[in-house]
Amino acid sequence: MSEADDAEATEAGDGDDAGPAPGREVWIEKYRPETLEDVYGHEQIVSRLQSYIEQDDLPHLLFAGPAGVGKTTSAVAIAKTIYGDDWRTNFLELNASDQRGIDVVRDRIKNFARSSFGGYDYRVIFLDEADSLTDDAQSALRRTMEQFSDNTRFILSCNYSSKIIDPIQSRCAVFRFSPLSDEAVAAQVRDIAADQDIEITDEGLDALVYAADGDMRRAINSLQAAATTGEVVDEETVYEITATARPEEIEAMVEDALAGDFSKSRATLDTLLTETGMAGGDIIDQLHRSVWEFDLSDREAVRLMERIGDADFRITEGANEQVQLEALLASLALANE
């Protein structure tokens, strides 16, 4: 197709009622829940948040949990529920990991809190990745929260609540977002596949859920990537797109090592690292997830967990990942002699 034809096709697609083809828009934004009722997998949290809104008694909030489980989505949904069409002018989203520093963030908070309200009792400030702030920066944030507590509500988001200082935690209602259940991830993937008219096999759906590991954002991105092939989204396509090892490959690698066949186990590892393109940390994560699904005795499972922990620490500290993973398999093979 020529550049002129490509441009013409693009213009036609932009005005087409059928909507853009897979890949022309970001599905994680298109399918981001608009209301709290649409948030998958956190029914109890949603119920408590709705209760705050219904009673018009929203406190400062702290959302803690891994990536892709609905923390930002819930914060935006709260703003949309409270302010309706005015939510953009009454909701300020900041990223605490921004290198501009807490002083600039604090200035933006002050300017936002001091501006006119348009008939609302308070505004909402959402501070993402709050656990990346130093203790001194968090102390400054605490004082800012106190200063504007009458007309501003803060929603803080973090991966690890233990990294948030106690004075801030004590001022917030803490909500802990766990990784999403397989059922919740599968439900949204089915809905998106139906809306996009994508044919997905049961095995492909299971593979997407496995690769996502409780991360809805990863599941949706993987579905969109798999859908761009224009073919049926099946198990093989998903594992290829996500560069994820099949659970049976991981299991075979471990069982070969435990059986004393180090060469065969090492060959499987080499395939995962070089042909599949997996990172050592990803293999460690899959090993950890799969330990109790293997047909291992309790003693073997405990020994494997110990070796995984050692390898994970060394890789994190900068050691060569292939050397460490081969050492892990070698230790399992030797332990069986």
Automatic annotation (TrEMBL):
Sequence segments annotated as region (Disordered): 1-23
Superkingdom in the source lineage: Archaea
Keywords: ATP-binding, DNA replication, Nucleotide-binding
The UniProt record lists the keyword ATP-binding: yes
InterPro entries, A to Z: AAA+_ATPase (IPR003593), ATPase_AAA_core (IPR003959), DNA_pol3_clamp-load_cplx_C (IPR008921), DNA_Rep/Repair_Clamp_Loader (IPR050238), P-loop_NTPase (IPR027417), Rep_factor-C_ssu_arc (IPR023748), Rep_factorC_C (IPR013748), RFC_lid (IPR047854)
A Pfam family of this chain: Rep_fac_C
Biased composition annotated in UniProt, kind: Acidic residues: 1-17
Any single Gene Ontology cellular-component annotation: DNA replication factor C complex
UniProt similarity note: Belongs to the activator 1 small subunits family. RfcS subfamily.
HAMAP family: RfcS
Function: Part of the RFC clamp loader complex which loads the PCNA sliding clamp onto DNA.
Subunit structure: Heteromultimer composed of small subunits (RfcS) and large subunits (RfcL).
Protein name in the entry: Replication factor C small subunit
Lineage, opening ranks: Archaea, Methanobacteriati, Methanobacteriota, Stenosarchaea group, Halobacteria
Gene expressing this chain: rfcS
